[in-house]
TrEMBL record:
Signal peptide: none annotated. GO terms for molecular function: ATP binding; ATP hydrolysis activity. Keywords: ATP-binding, Nucleotide-binding, Transport. Residues 2-238 form the ABC transporter domain. The lineage of its organism: Bacteria, Pseudomonadati, Bacteroidota, Cytophagia, Cytophagales. This is ATP-binding cassette domain-containing protein.
Length: 252
């Protein structure tokens, strides 16, 4: 479980996060949603200690993360897997080398053990046999899968995904969402996904936090989001043209 408490962040006098608190539970895929520029990625960076908030705390299974010694923070970092926006693969390394990278950097495993682990992770994301290929030789959806394989290679307790659907067609997006949910369930980990994709919201949102101009305005799940009485959330949800049309049909 991850708990964030009263996170506030300002850039050049502009408040980007305003006293955001919340809980992301183990075994659940939690989503942080909101329009562009509303502070989702900054919140993620605060949770990962890539950006320092002016105020607030982050607890990983009860262990405070931001105000501990560098060594303790390093230990906790090893338990986190991150799928960065855009995948962030090394173009000059093969798929296999990309996935193996965290093992090379952070473990003393033998080459054989590392190769077995990489093979297991590539199998988990449906990419058996893709190891020798270069990132330039695979599709956008496959690159995301490689990013996910790399994010889980260290067997993390916590998985963070920043806009996992960006740049993907709707069908591939759904498959990536399903994969993230499957991994969360299978490994019983705490997963936080940053997104503004309504398909994801409706299909994998066990727990959803809505940010608006840096504030948490609502939280709930995919079964309650369509009927919320929060005006800003309603505008966000029904900014999707197809959903707006669907609502029109229902209220005729
Ligand atoms: N390093 C930075 N320096 C100054 N301003 C920043 C910095 N990082 C983010 N911001 C500002 O913080 C605000 C929130 O940005 P953030 O990237 O969190 O938005 P977002 O909700 O993730 O948007 P998107 O969905 O488009 O990725 C924006 O106004 C952005 O310009």
């Amino acid at each position: 479980m991850i708990e964030i408490k009263n996170i506030s962040k300002t850039f050049n006098g502009k408040v980007v996060l305003d006293d955001v608190s919340g809980i992301f539970r183990k075994g659940e895929t939690s989503l942080v949603i909101g329009a562009s520029g509303t502070g989702k990625s900054v919140l993620l960076k605060c949770m990962l200690d890539l950006v320092e908030p002016e105020k607030g705390e982050v607890f990983f299974d009860g262990k405070e993360f931001l105000h501990v010694s560098e060594n303790d923070r390093k230990d906790l970092r090893r338990e986190m897997g991150v799928l960065f926006q855009g995948g962030a693969l090394f173009d000059s390394k093969t798929v296999q080398e990309n996935v193996k990278f965290p093992l090379d950097m952070l473990t003393k495993m033998s080459e054989g053990e590392k190769n077995d682990r990489v093979e297991f992770c590539l199998h988990k994301v449906g990419l058996d046999g893709t190891g020798p290929r270069m990132p330039s030789e695979i599709s956008g959806g496959m690159k995301k899968r490689v990013g996910i394989a790399r994010a889980i290679v260290m067997n993390p307790k916590y998985l963070f995904c920043d806009e996992p659907n960006s740049g993907l067609d709707p069908l591939t997006s759904i498959k990536i969402d399903e994969l993230i949910k499957e991994i969360t369930d299978d490994f019983n980990i705490t997963t936080v996904v940053i997104t503004h994709d309504m398909n994801s919201v409706l299909s994998i949102g066990d727990n959803i936090m809505f940010l608006y101009k840096g504030k948490k305005l609502w939280e709930g799940d995919s079964s309650t989001i369509m009927t919320s009485s929060v005006k800003e959330l309603d505008e966000f949800v029904f900014s999707n043209h197809a959903l707006k049309k669907l609502r029109g049909e229902f209220t005729k």
